[in-house]
Write a structure and sequence with these properties.
Blueprint: E1 2-7, E2 10-13, E3 18-26, E4 33-39, E5 46-51, E6 58-60, E7 68-73, E8 78-83, E9 92-99, E10 108-109, E11 113-118
Parallel strand pairs: 2-11
Antiparallel strand pairs: 1-3, 3-8, 4-5, 4-9, 5-6, 7-8, 9-10, 9-11
Amino acid sequence: QVQLVESGGGLVQAGGSLRLSCAASGRTFSNYIMGWFRQAPGKEREFVASITWSGGNTYYADSVKGRFTISRDNAKNTVYLQMNSLKPEDTAVYYCAARWSFKNGYDHWGQGTQVTVSS
């Protein structure tokens, strides 16, 4: 099992930036693909970004490409989501998640952190 704890959410004006962190504990962090998801009120949870075990490959939803950057520090057991040029439509609860491989679903989730972007 791996336990995930997000932090870094908050209230920011449109055009601003935030950096989310997700600290992992438990099993070896570098064994997991890490992802960020978000869920806005009344909407389904959606994929935001993911990063492979050593950080060699990253993937983004079209809605955040060019604005968000996912990264990880395996020595610190932490994955980050740098969010720039934030828009009101980025308002959501952001979750980090972990999975063992591309053949597996995300089966470890954090509790989420709220991001609110005001216009």
